[in-house]
What we know:
single chain; about 400 residues; mainly alpha; about 75% helix
Amino acid sequence: MMTLSPVRETFLIFLRLGLTAFGGPIAHLGYFREEFVHRRRWLSDAAYADLVALCQFLPGPASSQVGLALGLQRAGYRGALAAWCGFTLPSAILLILFAIGLVEFGDRLPGGLIAGLKIVAVAVVAQAVWGMAKSLCPDWPRRVLALAAAAFLLALPSAWSQIGVIVVGGLIGLSLKQSGITTPGEALAAGIGRRAASLWLLLFFLGLAGLPLLAQAFPGQALALVDAFYRAGALVFGGGHVVLPLLQAETVAPGWIGSETFLAGYGAAQAVPGPLFTFAAFLGAAGNLAPNGWGGGLLALAAIFLPAFLLVAGALPFWDALRTNQRARAALAGVNAVVVGILLAALYDPVWTSAIHGPLELLLAALAFAALMFGKQAPWRVVAGCALAGALLL
């Protein structure tokens, strides 16, 4: 049996996830946890929660940043690139093809099929909440903290609320008993030193400050496109749907793309697997001005994800050193409990509220959850089954 190199192995694993991971960023975190914590044991549940907490702090697409960090840990910079390509390109290619052939392609996939994909997201997120709560909320103080975080986010849903509860969770964690705090597991930095990390962070801020100046000094659609999508990837906290208003302002307002085309692309983005940030590929390809088509799509895609790589590579070494400090571990125990609360809030809104509208949807979600939890079925099989059931029954 041929042994795959770490880079090729990383690419193939993330390619499969990129072809099957429906349901948005919260569901993606569930898929990642099942694949890399439980099945392959690349890292522990606590280390994975540390990684999720870091990426929740950073602006940009949180699930893609977790994927980049996993690839970086497994196989260095080439591993990060392999993880990004595998997870991102399937949906990006589909959306570029949709943009190019919009009239011939039609509006979107059948409604029942999309409904089935939303239902499986309920099961995936519920499984993630259950598993992470068992390991990260072992006592009542952390359970109460998780429930309070979920209640607060449901009452005041916003990206800033999410960041706020993480900060508060860390402060409350400082008062937790030291005996209840686990020691950190394997390193997350994947061999990146602080000097290299500082360079990546410097490049991130140079891009954020320098691209607008370059776009003004050298007028042209290509540079304006890079500036707009880099800024969207660098400044949006919460990822996923949060980026849509900014993308609309950057592309529809200046006349790069019509509002009807924008909404058609948004509909298509809900029907493909992988990160929602690949919607940028559609916008770049469907633009009225050159570069568009394949060139514009790939340029917009690279620009919106570039800040994610720079931030992950820049933050991981400092995060890894910080989490080995005992007081930092105490704070992180509170943050991890809040991460469970964040997932719990997301399980209800938007995952549950957008997917479960009656007894039939509830039954399908329960069957999918049972298949994942008790049947130990591969996530892609459950996705395929729910999609087929939705197309036939809903």
